[in-house]
Amino acid sequence: MIFGRRLFYGEDAKIEVASPGTTNIQPQIKSNRALASFQVWWFNPCAMKRIIHLYIVILCFGGFILVPLARTAAADTVSNSTSAPQSLTPSSASTPQMPSSPAAAQTPTGNPPAPATPPTTFWTQNYLTGNWGGFRDTLKNGGIALTPTLYTEVFGNPSGGARQGIISDGLVDLTLDVDLDALSSGIIKDTIFHTEADYIYGPSLSEQYVGDFSDTSNIAGFNTLRLQELWLQKLFWDKKLSLKVGNMAVDDEYFQSTSASLFISGTFGAFTFIANNVTNAPVYPLAAPGVRLQLTPTPAFYVMAGVYGQDNNSNPATNNQNGLNFALNADSGMLIMSEAGYLLNQGTNAKGLQGTYRVGSWVDTGNHSTFISQANFANGTGPLQSVGTNYGVYGVLDQQIYAKDTQIISFFVRSGGAPSNTNFVDYYAEGGFNFTGFIPGRDNDIGGIAVARSHVSDDYGQSQILQGNPPSSAETVIEATYKVQIAPWWSIQPDLQYIVTPSGVQGSKNATVLGLRTTVAF
Q1: Residue 336 class from Cβ within 10 Å (0-12 exposed, 13-18 middle, 19+ buried)?
Q2: Are the beta carbons of 477 and 499 closer than 8 angstroms?
């Protein structure tokens, strides 16, 4: 899972963002995607019972069908590999992977054999709970990967912002991937089933204290247990064509940067250029039903596009708290995403510094009114002026500039632009550096520094002035972080952020944010 921008919901929310195309242009909470009205007979009106029912079905399905099939498939497979099933997701093909240390040279004929691989210990195993007595390998060899992960953090702003305070929040993420090819022993070829559920808990520092719209943490969100993604993907044409159908979050595939994903601020995930401009955008922790098609004619190039439903009447705080309602509202339009990318030195046996270059766009087919006309309409001085479809374009650069043994330096740039008369953030730019393995004995540690600037559109700022509110300019986030990889299953990440003009409203006090995150893979 790639963390994106988290949005906040509920009547107690303190920070609000304007929603393009509404008559009330006062900043308002964007209730992000959710698509309502899919009902199955076992869905109880009680939200918690609905989730429990869903997981009973999943567990029963896994216990009585998937597990025996996995054991059978594993027994039929001659393999010593203990790695997870090969991912069929396009992000695995389109995201730059940092080179690992050089492979050990093969032992020449006649020389003594290479030393045996050291036994796995508690501190070298991939998961806190280990291999479950070999059962985890049995599942993987049969095509099933179950990955529970816990993220916990403490953050505070000792100075600046709306007021000072400290919070603790977290996320429990449960992901299930089923390689139906391996599970069915080749009967269902090149097909993957994926589902993901999240339990988000704790308050948001941005919402309660700082007042920024970039989000100080990319795991903060509406407190609930919810189903996020549920999709099926099939590969065609010698695995060069990929079709994905189901409930999806667009930030898992589009506008990605491996280097940017190190940072904790939400703006380096599904950056504010997307999340604050598209009403109910399908951005984590929510998703929307859709269809995505990707073509990868060569290992160095891909193009993909998707169409995703929207429902402006859906609200995760009221009528879709657990993500179990799916709907397509024709009056709300659709979100059309497209992207093309060039993958440098990422093919088999490729040498040289790796890089990824992407260009993309989003189109919101809903009806949108200009900010100025919304202000005039609210003041009773003029009608709404519709401009119809809204859109934006973006680009991503993610490039290694140094790689030797385990030491790597990479940098990234992401930027986007959109019409200022209908978009809260009309120009966005970010950039930063990652430094991997530069402390002796800490080959897997990564440090980084980055800066992001979200420019609030002049039209929106003018519309606020017309309604007697303070003018807006831009919000800037500077972040420095260091991820300590204590074990393959455990990391600790101290973090420092400095936010200039939180909320973008002129006169807001610059905020200093300090925090610590820990991640445990079970």
Answers
A1: middle
A2: yes
Query: For residue 317, what pLDDT is reported?
Result: 66
* Cα–Cα distance for residue pair 241/366, rounded to 1 Å: 29
Q: Using only the alpha carbons of the chain, give its radius of gyration.
A: 24
Q: 463 with 426: CB under 8 angstroms?
A: no
- The partner residues of 178 in beta bridges, in order of sequence, read 144, 193
Sequence-distant contacts of 39-42: CB under 8 A, at least 24 apart: 39/325
Using alpha carbons, select from 278, 261, 268, 352 the residue that is nearest to residue 312: 278
What Cα–Cα distance (Å) separates residue 495 from each residue in 217, 252, 288, 314, 518?
A: 10, 23, 32, 34, 11
| H or E stretch covering 275 | helix 272-275
- The single residue listed with the structure tokens 């800037």 is 476
Q: Give the C-alpha separation, 308 to 335, whole Å.
A: 5
For residues 395 and 428, give the distance between their C-alpha atoms in angstroms, rounded to a whole number: 10
The DSSP code for 46 is S
Work out the burial of residue 107: count CB atoms within 10 Å of its CB; fewer than 13 is exposed, 13-18 middle, 19 or more buried. Answer: exposed
Q: In 132-202, which ranges are E strands? A: 144-159, 165-179, 191-201
Average pLDDT score, the chain:
80
The string of pLDDT tens digits covering residues 406-460 is 999 999 999 999 999 999 999 999 999 999 999 999 999 999 999 999 999 999 9
Measuring CA to CA, how many Å separate 453 from each of 265, 288, 399, 450? 12, 28, 20, 10
Amino acid at 268: F
Distance between CA atoms of 87 and 105, rounded to whole angstroms?
27
Which amino acid makes up residue 42? W
Q: Which residue's structure tokens are 């990564």? A: 446
Q: What is the model's pTM?
A: 0.79
Q: Is residue 131 within 8 Å of residue 139, measured between CB atoms?
A: no
- Number of H helices and E strands in the chain, helices first, is 9, 16
Amino acid found at 210: V
Q: Which two tokens stand for residue 450?
A: 């980055």
Cα–Cα distance between 167 and 202 in angstroms, integer?
Answer: 8
For 169-209, the pLDDT digits (tens) are 999 999 999 999 999 988 999 999 999 999 999 999 999 99
